[in-house]
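Below is a filled-in request sheet from our internal design queue. Each sheet records the structural input a requester submitted and the sequence that came back. We keep these sheets so that new team members can see what a complete request looks like end to end.

REQUESTER: design group, bay 2
PRIORITY: normal
MODE: inverse folding
CHAIN LENGTH: 190
BACKBONE (tokenized):
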């Protein structure tokens, strides 16, 4: 949920028996018709039952994902389906942990919105033992990077997501047989 205030809001605010957790706090002043500038602060919020770290993390996660949605994302990930949704979920969890640790200003959380991953898609045969990119596939498996396998035009394709490309793998960026792109897990407006 979103809220606004005419003064900088507290990150935690008692609301009855619950605690309202506020994050993405950002000053967005408003200019009135007569030209006066009015102080205005926007933020996201959720209500939790206690202010311990686990409750705040869970509350922020639940502000975007229901329990059923989270379970579906994890089940799909276990079956190597909808990996990009899993990556968005994981980055939201990371944001929730940052909020629980005290980062509540939008400027302090911007890293979560700007984080980028490299998506690499190639024929599965390239990544198998003896394949063109066997060494890259070995890195993906050792680091337990997320990947999914699909069939496109009768060809098995593997897609993986990496935080960066190692210097020894830089040559893949110019390989016309690979599909390489950048994704932002939290594709929100910044």
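RETURNED SEQUENCE:
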């Amino acid at each position: 949920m979103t809220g606004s205030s005419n003064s900088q809001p507290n990150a935690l605010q008692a609301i009855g028996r619950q605690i309202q957790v506020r994050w993405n706090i950002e000053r967005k002043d408003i200019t009135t018709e007569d030209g006066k500038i009015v102080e205005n602060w926007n933020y996201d919020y959720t209500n939790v039952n206690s202010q311990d770290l686990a409750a705040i993390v869970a509350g922020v996660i639940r502000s975007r994902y229901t329990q059923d949605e989270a379970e579906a994302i994890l089940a799909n990930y276990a079956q190597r389906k909808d990996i990009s949704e899993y990556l968005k979920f994981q980055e939201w969890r990371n944001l929730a942990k940052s909020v629980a640790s005290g980062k509540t200003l939008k400027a302090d959380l911007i890293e979560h919105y700007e984080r980028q991953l490299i998506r690499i898609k190639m024929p599965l045969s390239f990544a198998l033992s003896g394949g063109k990119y066997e060494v890259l596939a070995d890195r993906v498996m050792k680091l337990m990077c997320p990947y999914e396998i699909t069939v496109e035009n009768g060809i098995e394709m593997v897609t993986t997501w990496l935080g960066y490309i190692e210097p020894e793998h830089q040559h893949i960026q110019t390989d016309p047989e690979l599909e390489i792109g950048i994704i932002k897990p939290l594709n929100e407006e910044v």
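SHEET NOTES:
- The longest helix spans residues 83-100.
- The radius of gyration is 21 Å.
FILED BY: M.R.
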